[in-house]
Amino acid sequence: MEDQVRLNANPKGQQAEELEQYLRNMLKTQLFAVLSTVGGDQPYASLVAFATSNDLSRIYFTTSRMTRKFSNLEGNPKSSMLIDNRSNQIGDLRKAAAATALGKVKELSLDQEEDFQNIFLKKHSHFADFISSPNTAKICLLVDRYYVVSRFQNVFEFKVKP
């Protein structure tokens, strides 16, 4: 299958606009993502609720400071996040798509929390009590690029503009 994969590193024109719109829609409609971190020499994956900035350069999520994922992120800020649209149906062979965001994380400072809350709580209002806890870290993945895969073989790279 490797030789069937098409990587379009720099989509242009209408193709780039369609890819960006597809990515925006997936990021807007999906509630959860898989966050990948590294602790020591071991990878670790966690399910997280997320929300994105309008320019797609930041993905926000929360976690308790007592978790393995938080400890891993403190030790190594390089992370990735997988967002997908699968439904666990046979039709996923034709319709499933995933976006992998690559970047580095940082815990938000107090002066950055208002923007976070406006974006995150708009999508996840049920997390209001959790994010108000002093033990909850508000975290931002600063996205360098996305890889969008559809039909298990079409791969596109979407670089975030600085």
UniProtKB/TrEMBL annotation:
Superkingdom, taxonomy of origin: Bacteria
Pfam families, sorted: PNPOx_N (PF01243)
Residues of the Pyridoxamine 5'-phosphate oxidase N-terminal domain: 21-111
Matching Gene3D superfamilies: Electron Transport, Fmn-binding Protein, Chain A
SUPFAM superfamilies xrefs: FMN-binding split barrel
Protein name: Pyridoxamine 5'-phosphate oxidase N-terminal domain-containing protein
Source organism per UniProt: Dethiosulfatarculus sandiegensis
